[in-house]
Design brief:
- By secondary structure, the chain is mainly beta.
- It contains two helices and twelve strands.
- The protein has one domain: monomeric porin ompg (Porin), CATH 2.40.160.
- The longest helix has 23 residues.
- It is globular and about 55 Å long.
Length: about 300
């Protein structure tokens, strides 16, 4: 009996001592996952290729084809302000040098068109799901046979959806001239881009853009010329493993139709281009990671698709 009491008392004392020791031990914090820190990244690119532009009107007075070489480049950088807010800055420029044969009579001349655009994007972003944001840009554009360079601004909204190896990119906005010029184009536009990644470093991209606008003429106010533009692109890009370089080849086609006005007849412009480019990436290891966490946005302005005489 005495032995039983002793055993019970000893067990009770041991339990009490264990509880007391546990109460005196410092509490361990629960496991904590550090916030995801995205890196600043971007790329620069240069491209060139061949283009053919055909201009025609409905009465056959002007029916010409212009052929030339295009050269362009861009730089884009993305910076994360917080784990879900990012900002991207863009700078892009392009020029095309044409050899023009006036009326097929043997009189030729070298003419060029050129443009530049500087802009920025601000968006909410989840690298696993997509982004939603706004953009704005400004630049100058001067067309073939044009005597003045026109300043213009672009504003709009955009979004992306990420799903496995697919990316869907939708963008829409408004482009208008700033100042008073001989020709003053403005238009609403919308574009859709789809990207498919065969591997993290091999991507196929397709784009369709539609613009609907008008051109106001300084010499004929109150009678604008309405126009509609379709653009389509296909691009294949590959980045070489363990290097920051990627190569791509792209086809771009477009058609612009202009309604009849008091100043001009009904007309149409078609353009076809084959371009090849080189990109140098900074801060992202693959094309897929750049698409989801880096400089994934761009701006396609409708003015680059207007006829080389009027844009």
């Amino acid at each position: 009996m005495y032995f039983t009491r002793l055993l019970t008392s000893t067990a009770a004392f041991a339990v009490a001592a264990t509880i007391a020791n546990a109460a005196d031990m410092p509490m361990k914090a629960p496991p904590f996952a550090p916030p995801v820190v995205h890196q600043a990244s971007g790329y620069i690119e240069v491209y060139g290729g061949w283009g053919s532009t055909r201009f025609s009107d409905n009465i056959g007075f002007f029916n010409e084809r212009f052929r030339g070489w295009a050269l362009g480049g861009a730089g884009r950088g993305n910076y994360w302000l917080s784990p879900n807010i990012s900002m991207q800055l863009d700078a892009q420029a392009e020029g095309t040098s044409y050899k023009v044969d006036f009326g097929g009579g043997g009189f030729t001349a070298n003419q060029s068109s050129h443009s530049y655009l500087i802009g920025g994007h601000f968006n909410w972003r989840d690298s696993q799901r997509g982004l939603l944001g706004v953009f704005a840009a400004a630049g100058d554009q001067q067309g073939l046979f044009d005597f003045e360079s026109r300043r213009h601004v672009i504003v709009g909204g955009e979004g992306q959806i990420y799903w496995n190896q697919f990316t869907l990119y939708v963008q829409g906005g408004y482009d208008t001239s700033v100042g008073t010029y001989f020709f003053e184009p403005q238009a609403w536009f919308v574009r859709g881009t789809g990207r498919y990644f065969f591997t993290p470093n091999t991507m196929l991209e397709g784009t369709v853009l539609y613009a609907d606008g008008e051109i106001d003429f300084f010499f004929n106010p109150g009678d604008p010329q309405n126009f509609k533009i379709w653009l389509w692109e296909a691009k294949l890009e590959h980045r070489f493993a363990a290097t920051p370089f990627a190569l791509y080849i792209k086809y771009q086609g477009s058609e612009a139709k202009f309604d009849e006005s008091l100043a001009f007849d009904q007309s149409k412009v078609t353009d076809h281009r084959v371009l090849a480019g080189l990109r140098l990436f900074m801060g992202q290891n693959t094309l897929l990671s750049n698409d989801r966490q880096g400089a994934t946005l761009d701006i396609k302005e409708f003015r680059a698709l207007l006829p080389p005489i009027l844009n």
